[in-house]
Amino acid sequence: MSRDDVAEVKARTSLMELVKRFADVRRVGNRWMAPCPFHQETKPSFSINEEEGFYYCFGCQAAGDVIDFYCRVHGLEFREGLEQLALEAGVELSRSPQAADPKAQQKRQFRRRAVDIYELAAGYYRQSLFSQHGAECREYLKGRGLTKETVTAFGLGYAPEGWQNLHDFLRSRKVNIADAVECGLLVKNDRGRLYDRFRGRLMFPIQDLSGKVIAFGGRILISSDREPKYINSSDSALYKKGEHLFGLNVARRAISVTRSALITEGYMDVLTLHQYGYENACGVLGTALTPDQIRRLSGFCSLVECIFDGDRAGRQAALRSAEMLLSAGLKCRVLILPESEDVDSLLQKQGTEAFEAVRNDAPDGLEFCMDTIRRDRSPKEIVQWAIQFVTNLNDPELAAFYATRIMHGLGLSEEELRPALASHSEKRGGKKPSLTKSVPKAMSIQAKRERHLLQFALCFPQHIPLLCERGADRAFATSRGRALWEKLIDYGHAGVSAYLDEGEKRFFTECRMEREYLAADEQKLLEEVLDSLQTMAEQAKRREIQKRLRNHAGHGAHDPIEDLRALQQTLGTGRNDGQ
Q1: How far apart are CA 409 and CA 88, in angstroms?
Q2: What Enzyme Commission number does this protein have (predicted)?
Q3: Which CATH superfamily is domain 3-89 in?
Q4: Amino acid 40: pLDDT
Q5: So what's the pLDDT on residue 120?
């Protein structure tokens, strides 16, 4: 990945059109505004600047450019989001020397072919469902209470009985049969005979967040001791089951609006939840909830409600899931179903009132964890669990908050949790300060000057060369301010956003939002910044001389009298307006 790659993807992708996929965009005065996709609100507070390519929410302070928006709304890391956007925009990203080797190129080419093959297969299964071959499957769906709208929304299909139906269809479409085998849609037996992997099954397409089919799940219609009820695609070049959630592509809009998600296990549970109005539901695809799945959710969700069976296995799975969600900084609640019920049966038999009763009785994640630990563990194991849980929390402030609840909930002392709290004390000590947070009083005026300088440079980047001539590179006393300035110089105003952390991106976007109001006073602001730079240079000189005086003993490198005279002259001629 290069700066040119990032710039080209941005140039070829319309932020406005991307936002329109998720929100109703309208002009309000001289701004384009929309309801924020990242939090629930009644009045539009999400502002889009299409000309400069950034967005800012006045409600939740979400901010960034088109790549940031894509990553956040899809729950992706920057590199993954860039690659997906590049594919949509038709941009060929530059590759590292390792990625340029023939094997890597072959893998990328296969991925492109695989996308087409899965789409062909999904279309074939959908067509089969509504053909004469799919009559039995349609009756099954009707018996399960699913409407045609739900079936269409999730792209359900049917794999007909027979050994080579899909095989013959793909061959007729000139598909490389070896590719179809590698995709897991066809199987080759020991004698070299090819046959369809999915036969006589209701087909659930598994889609990524952009809606591309990447795998399938298939449910048998007639129970048989010889056949498993469900068959799922194995991992492939496109699909890793621990990374994806069934139905997330359909649910993501509702999750973004409500900032909450319902997580369940089965395909049918997800479909039934949606049909009963729970449009923020998705499923874990036959595996325990994983860190990768949590990462996908966390970009546009702050609360996760997990639904589990009430047996011992279900409660243990709930404990592991709650621990991971809390460690990731998410709120969670644990919904335990009545005995012998799943989500589908509960809603179909008793309706939403019964399900809402389960939701209302659900404890929050930490309370559930403590209840389970108190019931199942020895006193020694309780202490060990508490220490491990607090140590695993990513945020020191969150760790301190939960540690207090754990001490009260499990009857532990601060002494018993001290090993975990000490590890977070070390983390907090090494944490970088944020531009958006308050600074120590002794540095407040200096920090304000640095913020003013950065704000001006971000609003009016054409003046950065002049600011450098006047000593801006040497003016920063705070590490955070210096880090942002160095990124601005290294990557340039147009490309710097790709290298900013969350706090820096928010500050960057806030500055750009203010540019139109500051433009009329540009010259006046420039004079103020240059004046401030002179003061900052004088104070930098003071700090250097004071440092030399402190370090003089034992070195003899400078004449202390000369240093004192220089300091006196600086203090005498400089303005006495704080440091």
Answers
A1: 50
A2: 2.7.7.101
A3: Zinc finger, CHC2-typedomain (3.90.580.10)
A4: 62
A5: 97
Burial class (CB in 10 A: 0-12, 13-18, 19+), 210: middle
* Structural domain boundaries in the chain: 3-89, 102-239, 243-372, 377-429, 443-573
Spatial contact of 246 and 206, defined as CB atoms under 8 Å apart: yes
pLDDT of residue 296: 81
H or E element: which one contains 307? strand 303-308
Strand 331-336 to strand 303-308: parallel, antiparallel, or no bridges (unpaired)?
parallel
User: Could you give the CA distance from residue 454 to residue 472 in angstroms, rounded to a whole number?
Assistant: 10
User: Phi/psi at 169 (nearest 5 deg)?
Assistant: -65, -50
Structural tokens at position 50: 């299409």
Contacts of 172 (CB under 8 A, 6+ apart): none
Query: What b/e readout covers 493-513, taking b as 16+ CB neighbours within 10 angstroms?
Result: bebbbbbbeebbbbbbbebbb
Q: What is the C-alpha separation between 89 and 87, in angstroms, rounded?
A: 5
Report the alpha-carbon distance of residue 150 to residue 284 in Å, rounded.
19
Taken in order 415, 421, 426, 429, the sign of the CA dihedral is negative
Gap between the Cα atoms of 433 and 397, Å rounded:
14
What the block records as the tokens of 498 is 């790709």
CATH superfamily, with its number, for domain 102-239: DNA primase, catalytic core, N-terminal domain (3.90.980.10)
Q: Would you say 394 and 401 are in contact if contact means Cβ atoms under 8 Å apart?
A: no
In one-letter notation, the amino acid at residue 424 is H
Domain 243-372 coded CATH 3.90.650.10 = no
Q: pTM for this structure?
A: 0.67
Q: Name the stretches of the chain with pLDDT < 50.
A: 98-99, 428-443, 554, 573-579
| Burial status of residue 310 (CB atoms within 10 A of its CB: 0-12, 13-18, 19 or more) | middle
